Amino acid sequence: MDATLSLFALLALIAVALIFDVLNGLHDAANSIATVVSTRVLRPQYAVIWAAFFNFTAFLFFGLHVAQTVGTGWPQRWSMPRSFSARSWVPFAGI
């Protein structure tokens, strides 16, 4: 694979991931704001300010535990007992 094509593929993959992240964040924010507004706990303007504030400051109080788990906490493939084949683990993946 040519270096230029590899760079293009990498940039395209990063762009797709960022677009997904933005869209996912928009849906999460919309759902949290809609819940608070529909129950009339806060007015829409205050709900948006409230959500924006906590979205930007949550990591200061709760740390980066989710990012660390995603980066290092996944079980390794070799941690499965060797007596089971990969096919026998498939039903347990949905549990």
Structure description:
This protein has four helices and no strands. The protein is mostly helical and 95 residues long. The protein has one domain. Helix 1 crosses helix 2. The longest helix is centred in the N-terminal third of the chain and has 36 residues.
Quick recap of the structure?
With 95 residues, this protein is mainly α. 75% of the residues lie in helices and 0% in strands. The protein has four helices and no strands.
Approximate helicity band = over 70%
Overall pLDDT level: 78
Morphology call: extended
Number of domains: 1
Order of helices and strands: HHHH
Beta-strand percent range: under 5%
Provide the gyration radius in Å. 21 Å
Instruction: Note the total helix count.
Output: 4
Q: What's the N-to-C terminus distance? A: 40 Å
Q: Give the class from helix and strand content and strand pairing.
A: mainly alpha
Largest sheet: none
Uncertain residue ranges: none
Describe the oligomeric state of these chains in a short phrase: single chain
Strands, total number:
0
